[in-house]
Amino acid sequence: MKKRIVLSGLLAAALTLSLTACGDSQADTSTDTDAAEGGDTAAETVVLKVAASPTPHAEILEQVKPILAEQGIDLQVTEYSDYPIQNTVVDEGEEDANYFQHTPYLEQFNAENGTDLVSAGKIHYEPMGVYAGKTDSLENLADGATIAVPNDATNEARALQLLAAQGLIEIDPEAGLNATPNDITSNPKNLEFTELDASMIANTIDEFDLNVINSNYALQAGLNPAEDALVSEDASSDAAQTYANIIAVKAGHENDPAIVALVEALHSEEIQEFINSTYQGSVLPID
């Protein structure tokens, strides 16, 4: 039987008190009158606005809409292809939450921008992969080959660590999740790294020998990470938790009833089945 989320008494009570949407945006409400009984029965709808990357995040949220609608929550999803703006619109109150990033990225954004955004829950994991460009395999990689990697600090470090796991380079162990090309201690093939916006790499895949691409952007470009990636992060590794994609909100709103309902719906059996059947290992749900 498919799991349906039943809101706690807290949410039920909150909805009857004309809750505004979480964050700083305003909730819209609709009211129906039960004329047959001669009384007024108010059925109020809370509007929850969520920013999301198109694939897979917005696609997953579309599946959540009916679940939340049964609980009086109108989930409104706005798609953004750019990473940073999704945090900006939540911080400024234009959106109540976003769904696109992992915690290391969020922490870096907060540190660089003075924002106070937090995770309301881990939802899924997208294994980062290495994709062929001018070179069709790791074995055929020539001396001086070029590799495109994301230019944001957390995803670049993640990409370099993935390449290091294949024995292509060695990285200073102390660099960890802050690794940059400057932390490479051994580069026997004299590989050259080009740092690009994460959203651009899949669109320029033929310009480089190899490309390290986030799964969401690979999917948007028509690639199948489970089949097309030459190598991917181990889904059973610590990276699955470290880089789990989250629902992010302004600090203090992570326990708001509508946000709690959203996270619970995303963890439901119904949504986990959708993720597994739709993405076939390219996106993995986290309990």
Describe the sheet with the most strands.
6 strands, mixed
Q: Give the CA-based shape.
A: elongated
- What oligomeric assembly is this protein in? single chain
Range of strand content? 15-25%
Estimated helix fraction: 25-40%
Structural class estimated from helices and strands? alpha/beta
Averaging pLDDT over every residue, what do you get?
A: 86
Strand order of the largest sheet: 2-1-3-12-4-13
Order of helices and strands: HEHEHEHEEEHEEEEHHEHEHHE
The low-pLDDT segments are: 1-42
Provide an overview of this structure.
This protein is an alpha/beta fold and 287 residues long. 32% of the residues lie in helices and 22% in strands. It has helices at 9-16, 54-69, 83-91, 103-113, 153-165, 215-220, 225-228, 239-242, 257-266, 269-279, and strands at 46-52, 73-79, 97-102, 117-125, 129-132, 146-150, 170-171, 184-186, 192-196, 210-213, 231-232, 245-250, 284-285. Strands 2-1-3-12-4-13 form a six-stranded mixed beta sheet, sandwiched between helices. A five-stranded mixed beta sheet has the order 9-6-10-5-11. A two-stranded antiparallel sheet has the order 7-8. Residues 1-42 have low confidence and may be disordered.
